[in-house]
Amino acid sequence: MEGVGELFGRSVDAVLRRPRAVLLPLGIDLAYLLLGTLLFFGFAHVELLFPQGYRLPLFPVAVPHALPTVGDVVGPTPALSDFGRDVILAALILITLAIPLLAFAEAGFLGALKAVYLTEHDVLEEGRHVDAWSRVREAFFAAGRRHWRTFLVLRGIQALLAIAALLMPLWLPALGNYGLAVLAVDVLLLYAPYAAIEGGKGARASIRESIQLVSDHLATTLVALLFGFLITGGVGLLATPLVALTGVYGPFLLSALYAPIGTALALFLYNVYLSFQPRENVPESSPAPAASPSSA
Questions:
Q1: In a domain, 147, yes or no
Q2: CA-based diameter of the chain, in Å?
Q3: C-alpha 219: how far from its chain's center?
């Protein structure tokens, strides 16, 4: 079993060598930011940005999501708790409407991630793709259609966590550690999206496997999360000066900056998940081992 550092380095190297999958989360994230901006302006007559995902108040890091988003590194701009009921209601509508869309997008992205970085392809099979983007597009839509229902449940849970992070500061301001409960749920579900894509499992089986893997491999999971926390926290430090310099365009620029980093993190967590599987159970998605020189 490779170490966490080796898995991280291999994931970053793979994305740097073949960055085409980065366009998927970037396009999805920018579309979500634009949709949220239009919704808030039309519904509450307020100009603000509400990224997908969620950031807990006074908690400087976030668990990296399987679908990379600028919400992993920056929260609502400005904080929604500073506004009234119309803004909170607009945020709830946005979160709810996005569940089916992001369910398809997340399943499709992980399917493309698997096709581009984790699956070997026959030369003759590759010949039917007119270009590199053709395989990404085919994998995205195939995985989205196949796993949409499973990810609908997983995204529904994430939506509930986002709503909790949104409303708890208003309802329970006296509780200082409620965010840890939300974070704990997020950690327990860390491997569920990868289990759904890799094993074709339903939501319940994927959640059960994720909880079991986190319990059985807690030390490795915590080290992997440390990598994620350091990276999302480090990129998050750029948010304040970037927004100060570019204003409302800051989160859009930060999304473009974070997309390749988030893609590498998603691939890294996928590789961590695969490292827990028995070798005979993951022949399709495991990169071929390097050929050893034949002995004389």
A1: yes
A2: 76
A3: 21
What would the mean pLDDT of 207-212 be, rounded to a whole number?
96
Whole-angstrom Cα distance, residue 189 to residue 185?
6
Range of the domain at 227: 4-280
Contacts of 21 (CB under 8 A, 6+ apart): 15, 109, 112, 113, 116, 117, 136, 263
Residue in 75, 47, 53 with CA at minimum distance from that of residue 163: 53
Beta-ladder partners of 56: none
Q: Does the structure show a pLDDT above 50 at 87?
A: yes
d(CA 59, CA 63): 11
Highest mean pLDDT: which range of 34-48, 78-92, 213-227? 213-227
- Residue 286 in domain: no
Percent of the chain exceeding pLDDT 90 equals 43
Count how many domains the chain has.
1
pTM summary value? 0.86
Q: E strands along 17-120, which residues?
A: none
Rounded Cα–Cα distance for residues 257 and 22 (Å):
11
Name the band, by pLDDT with cuts 50, 70 and 90, for residue 78: low
Q: Does position 280 have pLDDT exceeding 90, yes or no?
A: no
Element (H, E) at 11: helix 4-17
Q: Residue 210: in which H helix or E strand, if any?
A: helix 203-216
> Looking at residue 35, what DSSP letter applies?
H
Residue 295 covered by a domain:
no
Contact 137, 128 (CB under 8 A): no
262 within 8 A of 25, measured Cβ to Cβ: yes
SS3 category, 252? helix
Residue with tokens 């959640």: 207
> What pLDDT, in 10s, does the model give residues 156-177?
998 888 787 777 767 766 554 5
> Are 258 and 68 in contact, with CB atoms under 8 Å apart?
yes
Q: How far apart are CA 263 and CA 269, in angstroms?
A: 10
Cβ atoms 49, 248 nearer than 8 A = yes
